[in-house]
Specification:
Number of strands of chain B: 5
Radius of gyration of chain B: 26 Å
Oligomer: heterodimer
Largest interface: A-B, 31 and 30 residues
CATH architecture of the largest domain in chain B: 3-Layer(aba) Sandwich
Strand order of the largest sheet of chain B: 2-1-3-5-4
Number of strands of chain A: 14
CATH topology of the largest domain in chain B: Rossmann fold
Number of domains of chain B: 2
Chain lengths: ~350, ~200
C-alpha cells in the first residue's frame, strides 16, 4: 500500500537563494521524492526561526549562523536546530550611498575595484570624517547571526575600521534598505540579491564590494530544521535533502536560468524584476546606474556541491561569533556548533533512494 | 515598581489592532503603554522610551530590528530577551500562533510579565476573530448586491416578480450545486455577453 505524498511546510524569505526550494517544489523534484511542499513566504528571520521552533514549519530557508546560534544556546528560543543541507553559496554584496561613494572615490576607490582596495578607501573616508568630529557612518545588515554581519565586519576591518567603534551597525529588513539609503538613514548595507541591484537600479547606491571578494566562495543559507524533527522523521528529511540536491543540480544548468529567473520573479516568491534576478544568477552585475555589467563568475553559486552543509562553515560561524563577542564568556561551544551542521545526513540521504510511497 | 508601572511598547503597523491592545492593557491597569506606528528609526524610539516589555506583531518585518537588541554586544543598556520564561513552551507557542512576539528586559520576574503577554495574546486573537467576521460580513454584503442585481435582470428579461426571480436562482443553484452568489454572477456575466 502506498500512501499519498507527505506534506511538508517550508518557510522562506523572498531572496535569490530561496531558489533551490522553489525549484524543488515547482519542477517536481520534491514530488519525485514523495513530498508535497507548502512554501510559506515570511517577513523576518525571527519569524522563520520561531515557526520552525514551535513546529509551524518542518523546515526552512535559514541563515547558516542562525542555526549555529540557536543550537549553541546564544539565540532566542534555543531549540536545537540542524542543517542537513545548504542552499547555495554567495549572493551578498555591500552597497554604499551615492554620497559615500563620492567620498570613497576621492580616496581612490574605483568601480569594480577589489574589496580590500575599496575598504581601504572607506577607511580613509572614515578617518578624515573623524578628524572633523563627524558622526560615524551607519551600515545596515539583515540579522545579527548572519554572514552579512560578519562579511561587513571583515570588510570594515580590512579598511582599518573597528566596526564596533568607528561605525554603527544596525539591522534593517531588506525591503526597507533602499528607502533607508534614500532618506540618508544609512550610508550602506550588506544584503543578498536582488536588493543590491534594486538600489543600483533606483539610482540610490553603488555596489562597492561583493561578498565573494571578501570570503572566497562564501557559505550562505541552509535548510534548517529542529534537531528533534530530523531524529524522528529520518525518511522525510532524506527525501527533502534529495529534492534539494536535485533542484540545485537543475538550477546549476545555465540553460535553466531563464526559467529559474521567471519562477523567482513571481510575486509569491521573490517578486523582483526578472532581469535583475537573471543578472544575479549569471553573476553579471551592474555596479552603478548607467554603467555596463561586470562579470563575476563566483558571485552566486548553485550546484550539488553547494548543498553540502560543511563543518568548516559551522566552525567559521562559531569563530565569527566568538570574535565579535556574540558568545559570552569563554564557554567552549565549538563542538556544539559543529554538531548542528549534518553533512552525514545529506550523505546518507544520497546513499539511499526513496522507498516507493513510504510503506509503513 | 508596581506591576502596572511597567512600560509597555507596542510595535504594530495595524492601527486598529494596536488600539485594541492598548485599550486592553490600560483596562488591566497598565499606565505606561506606548504605541509606535512610525517604523522609521524604530531602534531610536526604543532607546528613548526605555520600555520594560516590547510587543510586536509577527507580520512586521521590523521584528529583525528588535533581534539585534537581544545580543551580548548590545546596543541597549539593558539586555532584552524574547519572552521571559523560555521553559513555558505553551505560552511561546500560543503567542506565535496568535501572531505576536514579546521582548522583555532581562531580570524581570516572569510573573510580572505573564499577565501582559496573556492580555496581548487574547487581544490579538480577538482582533483576528474580528477580522474574520469583518471579511465574512463584507463577503455577504458583496453577495447580496450581486444577487439583487441578478434579480433585477431576471425580473426585466423574464417579466417575473422579485420572489419568482429569487426562487428561479435558488432552484438553479441547488440543481447545479452552486452557491447562490455564483448563479447571480453567471446571470450578470451572461447578460453582459448578450447585450448588443
Amino acid at each position: 500500500m502506498s500512501a499519498g505524498p507527505v506534506e511538508m511546510r517550508i518557510g522562506f524569505l523572498p531572496l535569490l537563494d530561496s531558489a533551490v526550494l522553489v525549484v524543488a517544489h515547482e519542477k517536481g523534484f520534491a514530488h519525485e521524492q514523495g513530498l508535497s511542499l507548502r512554501l510559506h513566504r515570511e517577513t523576518s528571520w525571527a519569524n522563520i526561526r520561531d515557526r520552525v521552533a514551535v513546529g509551524h514549519f518542518e523546515a526552512a530557508h535559514m541563515l547558516g549562523p542562525m542555526v549555529v546560534a540557536e543550537s549553541i544556546g546564544i539565540g532566542q528560543l534555543n531549540v536545537p536546530l540542524v542543517a542537513p543541507a545548504a542552499l547555495g553559496h554567495g549572493g551578498n554584496a555591500i552597497t554604499v550611498s551615492l554620497d559615500m561613494w563620492r567620498e570613497m572615490r576621492h580616496e581612490g576607490a574605483q568601480l569594480g575595484g577589489g574589496a580590500a582596495a575599496q575598504a581601504a578607501a572607506l577607511g580613509r573616508v572614515i578617518r578624515k570624517r573623524e578628524q572633523v568630529r563627524a558622526a560615524p557612518p551607519t551600515f545596515a545588515m539583515v540579522f545579527p547571526y548572519s554572514c552579512h554581519n560578519y562579511q561587513l565586519r571583515d570588510w570594515l576591518t580590512a579598511g582599518g575600521v573597528d566596526p564596533d567603534v568607528q561605525a554603527r551597525l544596525i539591522v534593517l529588513p531588506p525591503p526597507l534598505l533602499v528607502d533607508a539609503l534614500r532618506t540618508g538613514q544609512i550610508d550602506g548595507f550588506c544584503v543578498g540579491e536582488p536588493w543590491n541591484s534594486l538600489a543600483v537600479e533606483a539610482g540610490l547606491g553603488v555596489i562597492a564590494a561583493l561578498a565573494s571578494d571578501i570570503w572566497p566562495d562564501p557559505p550562505e543559507k541552509v535548510l534548517g530544521m529542529r534537531a528533534e524533527y530530523a531524529r524522528l522523521h529520518p525518511e522525510q528529511v532524506a527525501a527533502l535533502v534529495r529534492s534539494v540536491v536535485h533542484a540545485a543540480e537543475w538550477a546549476a544548468q545555465p540553460e535553466n536560468r531563464v526559467e529559474l529567473a521567471q519562477l523567482l520573479a513571481e510575486p509569491r516568491y521573490v517578486g523582483a524584476p526578472e532581469g535583475v534576478l537573471r543578472a544575479a544568477l549569471d553573476g553579471s552585475l551592474r555596479l552603478a546606474r548607467g554603467h555596463g555589467p561586470v562579470e563575476r563568475e563566483g558571485f552566486f553559486r548553485l550546484g550539488a556541491d553547494t548543498t553540502i552543509p560543511e563543518l568548516a562553515h559551522a566552525r567559521r560561524f562559531h569563530d565569527c561569533m566568538r570574535r565579535w563577542q556574540q558568545i559570552p564568556g569563554t564557554n567552549d561551544l565549538e563542538l556544539q556548533a559543529l554538531a548542528s551542521f549534518r553533512p552525514d545526513l545529506r550523505q546518507a540521504a544520497l546513499a539511499s533512494t526513496r522507498k516507493r510511497g513510504y510503506e509503513a | 515598581m508596581t506591576e502596572t508601572a511597567l512600560r509597555v511598547l507596542i510595535v504594530d503597523q495595524n492601527v486598529v489592532r494596536a488600539s485594541i491592545l492598548e485599550e486592553g492593557l490600560r483596562e488591566a491597569g497598565y499606565r505606561g503603554v506606548i504605541v509606535v506606528r512610525d517604523m522609521q528609526n524604530l531602534l531610536r524610539r526604543i532607546l528613548d522610551e526605555e520600555p520594560d516589555v516590547i510587543l510586536i506583531d509577527l507580520e512586521n518585518p521590523n521584528r529583525d530590528v528588535l533581534e539585534q537588541m537581544c545580543q551580548v554586544s548590545r546596543v541597549v543598556s539593558r539586555p532584552v530577551a524574547m519572552f521571559v520564561d523560555r521553559s513555558d513552551a505553551g505560552m511561546i507557542e500560543s503567542a506565535i500562533d496568535a501572531g505576536v512576539g514579546a521582548y522583555v528586559v532581562d531580570g524581570l520576574r516572569k510573573e510580572r510579565v505573564k499577565a501582559i503577554v496573556e492580555t496581548t495574546i487574547s487581544r490579538f486573537r480577538a482582533f483576528s476573530r474580528l477580522r474574520t467576521e469583518l471579511d465574512e460580513t463584507r463577503q455577504q454584503l458583496a453577495d447580496r448586491k450581486l444577487i439583487d442585481r441578478a434579480k433585477g435582470i431576471l425580473m426585466r428579461e423574464r417579466r417575473i416578480d422579485e420572489e419568482q426571480a429569487y426562487q428561479l436562482m435558488r432552484r438553479t443553484a441547488m440543481s447545479e450545486n452552486l452557491r447562490l452568489s455564483e448563479v447571480a454572477g453567471a446571470v450578470i456575466t451572461a447578460q453582459g455577453l448578450l447585450k448588443p
